[in-house]
Amino acid sequence: MKNLDSEISLEYIRASGPGGQNVNKVATAVQLRFDITNSPSLASDVKGRLIRLSGSRVTADGVLIIEAKKYRTQEQNREDAIQRFYELVTKASERPKVRHKTKPTKASKEERLKEKKSRGTIKKIRRDKAYD
């Protein structure tokens, strides 16, 4: 994942939120940008999963934008943005489990039918009592 570092671009912007008087003067928020569609480091299946996982954070051009403005310092926000990016890439790298169709067992079918029969019997008893 170290080769992804060269593809990440960081931009520092002014942030709302904590920072006191500094918030109007210092660009503490970090905007991490990563071009998913043109990345040579990621496999095509990982790119697809990353775009799907990222949701609204991906632009129409396929650029992932992560904003970090939780902390008061630029360094902490940069670390936060990078950490969130790598967590997202790690999650996208995991292949989803393939679901195999299974049939219900004979015992489970019989159990289901037995339960249906008993419910029907209860309802029939209640129905007969209502007219007394």
Question: Which keywords apply here?
Answer:
132 residues, Double Stranded RNA Binding Domain, 42% helix, alpha+beta, 3 strands, elongated, three-stranded antiparallel beta sheet
Outline the structure in words.
There is one protein chain. α1 packs across α2. The model has no long low-confidence stretch (mean pLDDT 83). The protein folds into two domains: 2-93, Double Stranded RNA Binding Domain; 104-132. The chain has helices at residues 44-54, 74-93, 106-129; strands at 8-13, 29-35, 63-68. It is of the alpha+beta class and 132 residues long. It is elongated, with a radius of gyration of 27 Å. The protein contains three helices and three strands, in the order ββαβαα. It has a three-stranded antiparallel β-sheet with strand order 1-2-3, covered by helices on one side.
What's this, in brief?
This protein has 132 residues and is an alpha+beta fold. The protein has helices at residues 44-54, 74-93, 106-129, and strands at residues 8-13, 29-35, 63-68.
